[in-house]
Queue: 3 jobs
Job 1
Amino acid sequence: MRQHHQIVDGDVTTINVVETVEDIEPFLRFVEERNILGVDSETTGLDIYSTTHRLRVAQFGDHTTAWVVPVERGSAFVEATKTALLSTDRLVIQNASYDLQVFDRHLGVKMEELWPKVTDTKILAHLVDPRGKQEGGVGHSLEDLTRQYVDAEVASNVKSLMGSLAKTAKTTKGEVFAAIDYDDPMYQLYAGMDSILAARLLGKLTKLVPGVSNKLIKYEHKLAEVCAIMERTGFVLDVEYATMLSEKLHCDELDYVWKAGQMGCENVNSTEQVADVLESRGVAITGKTPTGRRKVDKVLLERLVDDGDEFAHAVVEAKKARKWRTTWVDGFLRQADSAGRCHASIQPLRARTARMSITGIPAQTLPASDNLVRNCFVAEHGHSICSVDYQAQELRVLAALSGDQTMQRAFKNGDDLHQITAAASGVDRKIGKMTNFLTVYGGGARNLSQQANIPLDLARRVIAGFDKAYPKVKPYSKKLQHDAQMRGEITTPSGRVLPVDKERPYAALNYMVQSTARDVTCAGLIRLHEQGFTPYLRLPIHDEILVSIPEDKAQWGSKKIAEIMSSNFKGVFMETEAKVGDRSWGSLYE
């Protein structure tokens, strides 16, 4: 057994490296003597469900001592790791969703057995400060948290070891985790330290979670469990369709690139070349980039397309075909597992407001109302794809939070809120709808003027009409802004503390509505889990849940899910709507 020592916040810590079967006994004795342990894993990469992914090492530790177990060296080490996971009363993990899925897949230890005794330090850190580093926050990575709360020197010197090893091996940081030998002392130190740091962070962060947010700890862990199960389940990829679509998009790209070339542009991705051709065709380019170059952006090109410009159409379509193929379709084909499933990364606590994000299957950023890419994904054989979403969720939340009776009455009676807003200012419904959502997003008259393409004076009258129609919204917004300016933060009804930049107090209303709407959706997800619907859940998409239900039960099942997801929030009914499609996700968009 090899040992490494490291000073952490003034304490000498010891990392015990299991090398032989004989080292297992003292490791298990260490585990047996403790009821709470920091836990981590080292794998060959982040894509848990790829055919080449392996679990290499498992680590267990307390504040001063860690054990590193080489799972990759055989069954005795595998069994010791499983024993440690199942016998320990409490587990502390940084980003538990990842490690628990790793243990589930490679050790056969089901997440459902471990989640109830897990505390995720990443969840605690988000409740302490939800801001990312780019927003002025601490950040939520283990390195960031270690630097802020444990030991800055360890964060800089130990957490950077894999980057140093990658440089030495002349490979990337992503690849070094698979290539490095287990016996490398820097690798052993890096691995073992993570479990010690997780154990230390527990005590630091638990004390810093605002008292009003304590009730969110259990809630966020349950939500993380539901999302991790959805990740594990995955979404069936129609490989044949995706392959055909990739080929079609490639042909489309080549065709439009050729057409653009015939009009004098060799490279549609060169702004200068595109600008030259546009000006030669009589287009006046007035916009400039920050560096003084001619500005050829999406707005200009789409306006030209609407005017029937063939060259602009070729450029737009060539770029679109390439993006859709390389960013989405080919990505789906690369990430599909051996069973033809893609496993999205669902991050339930991503933004400052706790709004969820999805990568891998970018459901939140796919083209609106387009089924071409969505047709890549299908329900199981004999199932139908169903969608259940909240109706005007953020506006309903605004009605509930502000207590505005006109808005609440409109929802109760089924009146058209967008038309009410429009009528209050004598504009059409489209502008009324823009005004409603701009208010939710913290926009004002200038934003409305630009988006609706109306004079600024008219935009101001429309905003004034909104304020008159819904008299409690503006005072509520002003109260939030006052709180933000006085305290630098606001607190949601769920107890989530949201920092608000004092120079941007107008963002307080948007943060409050967005975060509260997120909690409405997530509470619905947890209710579905508690009532046994988790095996049918595929993706959460903002205020929508995508599900796969047996075809003969699809109508009943989707209505039942919609019923469970709906709720009453501060006297306002959070109404849901269910849609039943065919087998493909895209069928919901036809």
Job 2
Amino acid sequence: MIFGKTINKYYKKYFHMFALGLVTLIIVDYVQLEIPNYIGALIDELKLESTDQAGILEYIVDISIFVIIIIVGRFAWRLLIFGASRKVDYGIRNEMFAHAEQLDAEFYSNHKTGGLMAYFTNDLESVRRAVGPGMIMLVDALFLGGLAFYHMFTLDVMLTLFAGIPLLFIAFFGAVMGKKLRNKFKEAQHAFEDLSDFTNENLSGVGVVKAFVKERTEINEFLKANQHAKDKNIDFVRIQAKLQVTITVIVSTVFVVILGYGGYLVSSTSGLPADEQFTIGNLSTFILLFNALVWPMRALGMIINVRSRGKGSLQRIDYILNQEVGVKDGQDLTKVDEIKGNITFKNLTFQYPDANEPVLEDINFTIKQGEMVGVLGKTGSGKTSILDLLLRVYNIDPGQVFLDDIDIMKLPIKQVRNSIGYVPQDGFLFSDSISNNIAFGCRRDEEYFLQIQEAAKLSDVHDNITDFKHGYDTVIGERGVTLSGGQKQRVSIARALIKNPPILILDDSVSAVDTKTEETILSNLRSVRQNKTTILIAHRISTIKDADKIILVEDGKVIDVGTHKELQERSEFYRDLVYRQRLEDEIEVSS
């Protein structure tokens, strides 16, 4: 068994299952140790000339009853204790996932997906084994072992001492090896994390690997990571094997001693009065009791192993659950019925938690409800960072960003994000049907499929979807790999449109579509987004030239705000962008 803040509450929650299971286990252990006494008595009874068939049958019936009790009892305690351990596993996994969903972007920038999966798989399995099998091993080692010793003492004290003294060596050796096992298991788990990270990244980016013909290089790197994980696991198993082999050698040696000394007792006491004899039946009972004791003796070593692994894994799980949720609601919240879509940035300066200097400096602009606004700038200028703050991905100082003249830090995060439809640059899609991907952000009512189709038409992807064999029920691959880049972007846009939010943000979300499709999508947005705020981040002038206003961003600063015409007249930076893109378009047409 293992204990800690994370797991103790589950012992309390499922106490009835654990308690009933342990009571049943103890009853089974008690009944199990009655069988050797009956078998020994039966052997001695068979030596007597007065033995009758009815007496033998009575012994057999009693032993059969004990066997039935053991069978039923073992089924019961397995159902209760193993069932409870599965419920603990289930509860902690849900708790971990729920907590992981709340952790901020900074945490995920420092922890890779493959490594995090190790917490949800290997570590949880180790904790479950420590809770279920570990508890059974502990009870058997204490109760079954103790009761077996008691029965053995009643048969012969000296023979019992010969059998019991080696347990001291097992306990000492186990205590020494326990800490080493725990440390080696942690090292093995870290190696597994690295291997999972590497595998996850390579399978996700297999297209890039193939494009650069780096299959052999990546295979060699995988072999190195795999070998490292193998070496760490072998180090752990080597110590584990030493512990088990030592226990096996001790148990086998004791068994030889019992046979030798027990045989001597049988022969040396054969001429004594019946109550002073150590009979063959007594020796048989003692051997059967010792066989029953072998499992508790082995369980001592296994407890050390299972507990060491479970404790190490619980510490790793605690690390995840103890991660503080950095982005969360404050205490002084302002609740409003709805957010209309007025946005104000006032003297905003922002620096990422792990950065050395600000990524945004003195940002000032206002967006009114119903406006379509373009945000234009070179790669790395800070456009996406501005929108991350609008989505409350990071904490900022109070009084810098306002929605409907209310400080965004005083608004509930859930309400802020519910009021925004966001289409990110990468257009992440789930490995699910197209309809479920589009409907991800909407309520599933009777007419939701009609809403899905309408959103798909607005994003100009409906015809593409109906061309698929299974239409909207087409299951796309991981991250939407079975769709083209333009189709993924348009499905992502449909997912945001079906939400019908007061604020819609498209972060360079039409870069993978052709000019005609882009014009269709923008035209549809203008018609359905009346009185709703729309923000378009773009690299192409064509995407935002008809916007109500354009915000120019350069090196983390807003350098100008105006219409396409106004910026052409007064901004050399904007004119340069227009000129360069015109040249690119001419080159593309001529080629």
Job 3
Amino acid sequence: MLEELSVRDFALIDRLSVSFSGGLSILSGETGAGKSLLIGAIGFLLGGKADTGVIRTGAEEALVTGIIDVSRNPEARAWLEGRGIDAEDGRVLIRRGIKANGRGSVFIQNQPCLRADLAELTSLLVDLHGQHEHQSLMAAENHRKLLDRYARIEAQVEAFSIRFAELSAKRKSYESALASEKERTREIEFLRYAVDEIGKARLKKGEEADLEAEERLLAQHEKLFAAADQAHGCLSGGGDAGGAGALAELRRLRAALEAAQAIDPGLADLARRVDDSFYELEDVADSLRGYLGNLRYSPERLEEIETRLADIHKLKKKYGSSVEEILARLVEDQERLSRLETWEEDKEGLAAEIAELEASVLEEALALSARRQEAARSLQSRVESILKTLGMPNARFFVRVGRKEPEAGKPVVGPAGVDEIEFMIAPNPGESAKPLSRIASGGELSRVALAAKTVLAETDTVDTLIFDEVDAGIGGEVAVAVGEHLSTLGRRRQVLCITHLASIAARADNQYRVEKEVSDGRTSTRLSRMEGRARAEEIARMLAGDPDEEASIAHAVELLRKYGNWRDGTWEK
């Protein structure tokens, strides 16, 4: 629901702010006062096309701002959530401007967006009738959703769409597999070769590191043996080290300290530490002797290791950067190969699943179609009956429930079923039915929209309806009927309507007068809310053209009382 509207420097409007409430709100005023300019400003706010011609003379920018309540509109809330826009307290602030240099700006909750995005959002919130844009009834793609809401089958259609998506996925998988038969054969051959080659290698985790360590020992065997032998000689004496060796010297040191300890017991700790060092080095010498005894050089083993590492390197270039990656690749390839080799069996099973699902989906689609056709007949009848009271007694309203040309004798099924829905109208006898978008008369279109919206009001989610030309070319009983329908619609939706007819204006919950005023040589459009005697005078002007004639004012008061809209009991003739 549109709650606040602010307009600045838009055409003849310099500054204007107004609050709207629910129910039926009427905009009245003399011809040329600027009522359609106000509707134009709202259309601009909703994403309608505009150029710099809408900027007030002398201004740099036209700016329109609105606050819209989206709390009761789940589709609009989902749209906002999908784009990360938070509706604070269930409301969104929309701001749109256009500068004299032609650059425009659009903000939703201070987040910049494209005009197309703005129009997409506001199409869920507001229907503006009387112009050939921003109308959900004008877009054929909306008609199926409106009919489904009227038939109360939205939940079934949503469930059907999920089933259809499942069918589409299975078809895609099946067709993709069929189309790549040669590719699958090549892949099987490659996988078999890879699995065989990796399997024959009998790789083990950590094998490469162990082989590389052993290769280093064998490749530098002579240097390793010489260093270890020298270390052993340093401890035990003899060999390349020469001399008695460290252990012999430590034996002499032990004997000397034992003699000194006998004289000075304070040297006992030093003697003990020398003993510990001696025994530790003696153990190292024994270990080195054993190491040298086991150290063998095998050129055959070195060649074997180098061959194995070369084989691993080749596998790494083809299948992975490490033995672990190659082994993981082996598992994946084995699983993929298994799936491909069992494809024939899987293909038959998938084909059977698809056939079964196709039959089920078609059955559901036909059931939905039957519900739509039943709802279409009801909607047609109800809209036509209302059109008769709105001055279009010969109009025929049609809800075309058509289908695409069948393929192989079967209906073409889509995400929403087999139906193509479009609202059509034949306004006059002898005319063929045409899409709503081809109605030439704005007044006729507005009345068709009024009739349709009256019927759809129970299920339609658009909260705000704006009618610009609904009273064009009507009067008398038809005008009374139009007012009645607008009032009925206002009980369920917010309705804004421009009218010149008192019988319609008197039914309004709120009435605003649009008028021009000249100040300092500049013309501006103003908007005032009419209440009490001021409203009675405005109704009197609409009735007789004279807002000061007491008889006209009395007639206006009676009219307001008749519809329960006279709220000022202090007025007297």
